[in-house]
Structure formats: C-alpha cells, structure tokens
Amino acid sequence: SINDQSNSADGPGIAAMFANYANGINTGNYEHAYAVLSTRAQSLTSYDAFSQGEASSYIVTLSITAVTPAASKDSAEVEFTSVQDATAGGNGQGCSNWKMTYTLVSSGGSWLIDTARPHPGSPAAC
Question: Each residue of 56-88: pLDDT tens digit?
Fold first, then answer.
C-alpha cells in the first residue's frame, strides 16, 4: 500500500507515480515500472538490467514522509519495505526496510524518478 504523509500539494501525484512503480514491480510488469524512470535515469541502467534486478522483488509497503518542492525537481523522502531473494537484496537481505531520498522531475503532468539515494544504514533488515 502507498501512504502519502507529506502534506504537500505535489504529494498525491508523487504517490500515484510510486503506486504505478510498485504495481509494475509487484506484478512483473517491469516495462511499466521502467517507464516511471526519467530519460536520465534510464540512461544509467538498461531495461534488461533493471528487470533482472527487480525480478524477485515485491514492495510490501511504501510511505512518502516528506516532499520538498523546487522549481524543476521535487525531492521526496520515502520509506518502504521490500521482500526479495536474499541474493538480490540490499546487504544480502530477504526482507529490507529502506529509507531513500528520490529526486523527481515533472514530465507531461506526471512525475518521474530521476535519482534515488539510500540514507546511511539503509537498507536495514526487517
């Protein structure tokens, strides 16, 4: 489930984007999830590498805790729990609690993930 706790005007649109992203990963529709990445983000990882990296992942919960609007890019603080094969997980974990900062760009009235940076110590084991 996606939970927007940001109290930001951009929060609902950002939550909708993360819902599309998580749904794509959780249903194996990696093209759908990959399409939520900005052109710059897509240039850093091929579709094949992205889909292989997400193949065993399932996003259990996702909360947007804060959104900082800016002129061209918003920043979103996001916490989520994922389960995955331990070989594909952060720090060899089968269940991970993530705290991330995402930079998001607006494109055609929707949001795209431009950068993703884990907080220090993230992910932690569930």
Answer: 999 999 999 999 998 889 999 999 999 999 887
Q: Is there a contact between 105 and 111 (Cβ–Cβ < 8 Å)?
A: yes
Structural tokens at position 47: 């579709």
Q: What is the DSSP letter of 37?
A: B
User: Which stretches does DSSP call E strand in the chain?
Assistant: 2-4, 58-68, 73-83, 95-107, 110-118, 124-125
What residue type is assigned to position 43 of the chain? S
> Quick check: pTM over 0.90?
yes
DSSP reduced 3-state for 58: strand
User: 58-68 and 2-4: which strand pairing?
Assistant: parallel
Question: What distance in Å separates the CA atoms of residue 111 and residue 108, rounded to the nearest whole number?
Answer: 8
Q: Which residues contact 22 (CB under 8 A, 6 or more apart)?
A: 2, 33, 59, 62, 80
In angstroms, the Cα distances linking 120 to 98, 100, 110, 117, 124 are: 10, 9, 29, 9, 10
